[in-house]
Write a structure and sequence with these properties.
13 helices, binds NADP nicotinamide-adenine-dinucleotide phosphate, alpha/beta, Alpha-Beta Plaits
C-alpha cells in the first residue's frame, strides 16, 4: 500500500448487503481511486458467534484505524444479543448525525415526478428513545426513557446548518413534537431557534412533526433540509425515500467527529437476498458520499453522474414499478461502470464545499442553573385500589407533616382529586407529593422518609424529583385533567 492510499473498513453485512456492497466496491475500483479495503464482520454472523454487541473486536479495531466505514445492512437475529449492531456502531463511535439525502431521479417514476424533489433529512442518531433504555415498571406497564440533551441538540442543529452551507441550500426546517413533549422535543426546537440567527442566509422554520409528514405527502418541494430527533427522523426518512422511488435509492451517512459510516437506508431485505435482484443504487450513492468525505470529490461526482446516466438509459432493477425486464444487480453495476465519466442530461453535478464540522468540546458538558429547588416528587407505585381509596390510604400511610398528596394519575389522566374520570384504570399510579406549605421546598431527607412511608403500604418502582431551575418548573404539568 502506498503511503497515500486511504484505508476504509468494509462491513458487507447481511441479506442483500454483500451483493450491494460488492457492486459499490467494483464501481469505486473502476473510478481509479486508490483505497485499501479492510473487510470485517458485524451483525448476524457475529451475534451467532456469541458476540453480544454484534460487533467483533477486530471490526472495532479496524474502524478505530480507518475512521471511515462502508457498510451493508445488519440484522439482529431473534434470540441473539440485546442491542442492534447498528446502534452499537453508532454509539461506540458517536456518529451523532445521520444525513439522508433524496432527490428525484431520472426514469424513476413516482407520484411526485416532475417536482424536482431534493431533500436532505438530518437525523439525531444517538439519543432519544433509540438509546433503548426500557423497563417494565409493573408486569403490565412498560417504560421507555426519552433522554434528550442540550449537547445532543446543539450538535445536530450545528451539523444541519453546516451541511446546508456546504451544499449551498437555503432553507432548514426543524421538525419536532414540542407541542406535546415541551421539554424533550422542545429542547431541540429552542436550540434550533437559538442557533438559526447565526445563519442569516438560510431560512429557518420550526414545524410540528405530524404536519411535516402531512406536508411531505402534499407539497414536498417546499423542503430543503429537515433536522429532527432520532425516532422522528427514522420514520420521516423512510417517507422521504418513498417520495423519490423507494428504499433502493436512499443513501445515508452517519457522521461523527472522528468516524463516519456510510450505508443505505434500507435493511437486509431477506426476501430477495442472494437472488442478484437487489437495487445497489442506495449503497452506490452512499459510497459516493464516502468518496466526497475522504476528499475524492471528483470520483464522487463521477459515480453519482454515472448512476444518473444509467437510469436515464432505462437500465433499472425490479424494485421500480412497471419494469418488465429488470436488470440484475450485477448488470446494473456493469452499466454504471461503463457510464463512468459521462454526464447526466437532466441533473448537473452539484457544487460542494467541505463541510465545516462543529468543534467538538472536551470533557463533561455542564449546563448551569443559577438557582434550583425541589418542589415536589412523583412516586410511581403498583396498586389494585380504586383512586379515591388509594388516596385515602396514602394520606393515612404518610405521617410526614411537611408534604401533602397533590394528585394521582393513571395512564396520563388525573384520577385524584376528581370524580368524573373516563380512563380505564390499570394497576400503575403516579402519585404527586408537594410541600404542605406553599413555596416551601422538599429536602432529600423528606423524600427518603416519604418513600419509606409510602413503601410500607405499597410496592413502588420509580420516583422523579420535581425540580425548578432558575425559578421555572423543570417538569410537565399533568396532560389530562
Ligand atoms: P428492508 O430490509 O429495508 O426491506 C423492506 C423491503 O424493501 C424489502 O422486502 C424489499 O421489498 C425492499 N427493498 C429494500 N431494499 C431494497 C433494495 N436495495 N433493492 C430492492 N428492494 C429493496 O426492511 P425490513 O424488511 O424491515 O428489514 C429487514 C432486516 O434489515 C431487519 O432485520 C432489520 O432490522 C434490518 N435493517 C437494518 C438496517 C441497517 O443495517 N441500517 C436498516 C433497516 C433494517 P420487496 O418486498 O418489494 O422485495
Amino acid at each position: 500500500m502506498s503511503p497515500a492510499t486511504r484505508s476504509v473498513t468494509v462491513l458487507p453485512g447481511d441479506g442483500i448487503g454483500p451483493e450491494v456492497v460488492e457492486a459499490a466496491l467494483a464501481i469505486i475500483e473502476a473510478t481509479g481511486v486508490a483505497i485499501e479495503f479492510e473487510r470485517h464482520e458485524a451483525g448476524e454472523k457475529a451475534f451467532k458467534k456469541g458476540i453480544e454487541t454484534g460487533v467483533p473486536q477486530d471490526t472495532i479495531d479496524s474502524v478505530e484505524r480507518t475512521r471511515v466505514v462502508l457498510k451493508g445492512p445488519l440484522e439482529t437475529p431473534i434470540g441473539f444479543g440485546n442491542r442492534s449492531a447498528n446502534v452499537t456502531l453508532r454509539t461506540l463511535f458517536e456518529t451523532y448525525g445521520n444525513i439522508r439525502p433524496v432527490r428525484e431521479l431520472p426514469g424513476v417514476q413516482t407520484p411526485f415526478t416532475g417536482r424536482k424533489l431534493d431533500i436532505v433529512l438530518v437525523r439525531e442518531n444517538i439519543e432519544d428513545l433509540y438509546a433503548g433504555i426500557e423497563y417494565m415498571q409493573t408486569p403490565g406497564v412498560a417504560e421507555s426513557l426519552k433522554l434528550i440533551s442540550r449537547e445532543g441538540c446543539e450538535k445536530i442543529v450545528k451539523l444541519a446548518f453546516a451541511f446546508a452551507v456546504a451544499e449551498d441550500r437555503h432553507r432548514v426546517h426543524c421538525a419536532t413534537k414540542s407541542n406535546i413533549m415541551k421539554l424533550s422535543e422542545g429542547l431541540l426546537q429552542h436550540t434550533f431557534e437559538e442557533f438559526a440567527p447565526q445563519f442569516p442566509a438560510i431560512e429557518a422554520k420550526h414545524i410540528l412533526i405530524d404536519n411535516c409528514a402531512h406536508q411531505l405527502a402534499m407539497r414536498p418541494e417546499q423542503f430543503d433540509v429537515i433536522v429532527t430527533t432520532n425516532m422522528n427522523g427514522d420514520i420521516l426518512s423512510d417517507l422521504t425515500s418513498g417520495l423519490t422511488g423507494g428504499l433502493g435509492f436512499a443513501p445515508s451517512a452517519n457522521i461523527g467527529n472522528d468516524v463516519a459510516i456510510f450505508e443505505a437506508v434500507h435493511g437486509s431485505a431477506p426476501d430477495i437476498a442472494g437472488k442478484n435482484k437487489a437495487n445497489p443504487t442506495a449503497l452506490v450513492l452512499s459510497a459516493a458520499m464516502m468518496l466526497r468525505h475522504i476528499g475524492e470529490g471528483k470520483a464522487a461526482t463521477n459515480v453519482e453522474q454515472a448512476v444518473l446516466v444509467t437510469l436515464e438509459g432505462g437500465i433499472r432493477t425490479g424494485d421500480m414499478a412497471g419494469i418488465s425486464q429488470p436488470a440484475s444487480t450485477t448488470d446494473f453495476t456493469k452499466a454504471v461502470i461503463a457510464n463512468l465519466g459521462q454526464r447526466s442530461r437532466l441533473i448537473p453535478p452539484r457544487e460542494y464545499r467541505k463541510i465545516q464540522m462543529p468543534v467538538q468540546q472536551k470533557g463533561v458538558r455542564v449546563v448551569k442553573a443559577a438557582s434550583r429547588s425541589v418542589v415536589g416528587v412523583d412516586i410511581y407505585l403498583e396498586s389494585e385500589m380504586e383512586p379515591d381509596k388509594l388516596a385515602q390510604n396514602l394520606q393515612s400511610a404518610v405521617r410526614l407533616k411537611s408534604v401533602r398528596l397533590q394528585m394521582i394519575t393513571n395512564r396520563g389522566a388525573i384520577v385524584f382529586p376528581t370524580t368524573d374520570r373516563q380512563v380505564s384504570l390499570v394497576d400503575h399510579f403516579r402519585c404527586r407529593f408537594v410541600p404542605a406549605v406553599e413555596n416551601a421546598e422538599l429536602s432529600d431527607a423528606d423524600i427518603i422518609t416519604l418513600l419509606q412511608q409510602v413503601g410500607g403500604a405499597h410496592r413502588w418502582m420509580h420516583i422523579e424529583k420535581l425540580q425548578q431551575f432558575d425559578g421555572a418548573p423543570a417538569f410537565s404539568k399533568s396532560q389530562v385533567s
